[in-house]
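Hey,

Quick one before I head out. I ran the complex with calcium ion overnight. Inputs first:
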Amino acid sequence: MSLKASLSSIYCSVFFVFIVGCKDQTQEKNTANNLEKTTTISNVKTPDGMVWVKGKTFLQGAKDSDAYAMPREKPAHYVTVDGFFIDITEVTNEKFRAFVNATNYITVSERPIDWNEMVKDVPPGTPKPHDSLLQAGSLIFNKNVNAVVNMENYAQWWTWKTGASWQHPHGPDSSIEGQDDYPVVHIAYEDALAYCKWANRRLPTEAEWEAAAQGKNNDAIFTWGNDAEQLNKKANTWQGTFPTRNEPVDGFEYISPVKSYEPNSIGLYDMSGNVWEITSDYFNVKYYQSVKDSTNIVNPKGATKGYSPSNPYIQERVIKSGSFLCNASYCASFRISAKMGMSPDSGSDHVGFRTVASPEMLK
Ligand SMILES: [Ca+2]
Ligand SMILES: [Ca+2]
């Protein structure tokens, strides 16, 4: 979702859509991760903070036994991906600060909004908003919402906040001091690309992201397997009644430091919940229908263009993992196959990213 979303009732940008959105004190020792760190892949040493995802064939999309699966996740189909390296955590504030310090990069949410550009992405005839609404800012979750009239009206729990950015996640009076190990948020697609360029990384495709989330599995619903009862021990999501009553049974009401929950079977943290993660694929709700009769799809890069009936004016990108706002009553996006669309020019306080690298990028 973005400011645009508030400009028209028929315009519903991503963030509104992907909102729906225990810590186990005895974290498993991740022996798999330790092993991978010392493994040389194609004469390329595994970079610090990453693990190797072996190339494999797996079932992408909704599994038959997944009661929460949405039409855009169907039908499931087998795909093959080559091996790649992936960050074990979401990109943290510490890492993003290093990038900004090195490049003086200014994120999208820190730039004033150019109405001449925005007008291209909103329904025809949308009036220009007041200049006060075109100041730099981003979307934040309204923690104080105590009643919702219509669950389809996301604007009830999202607020455009002038001055909100990765350095001020709740607005100009907030900061990330002492939160180096929290995932960076308020990241737009182009911000993530800029970070990747600096770091010699790239964003994962949706298929790569699912392959990594599966870990050693090939057809699991969750990143830890198929037991839904494990959710509150394995991921930072939302308990209670969304969006009015947050009962942090899992230990966190808001985002959590990375590595607060057990990793999956190949050592990846927060592949379910905490913050959404941007991928390189276009969000097209019909894409899986278009490939259902294909066999052995190799290294798919998703649809050639985006398509979302709820947001027809934007070429959205796929985001994965769900966030601390995800709840089964709304979208259950903590499942591997779940996905939402994200407007490429907007961020919010529950979207971040993690990066990948192919071996050839590191030679
Ligand atoms: Ca939580
Ligand atoms: Ca995540």
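The two ends are 38 Å apart (CA to CA).

Talk tomorrow,
K.
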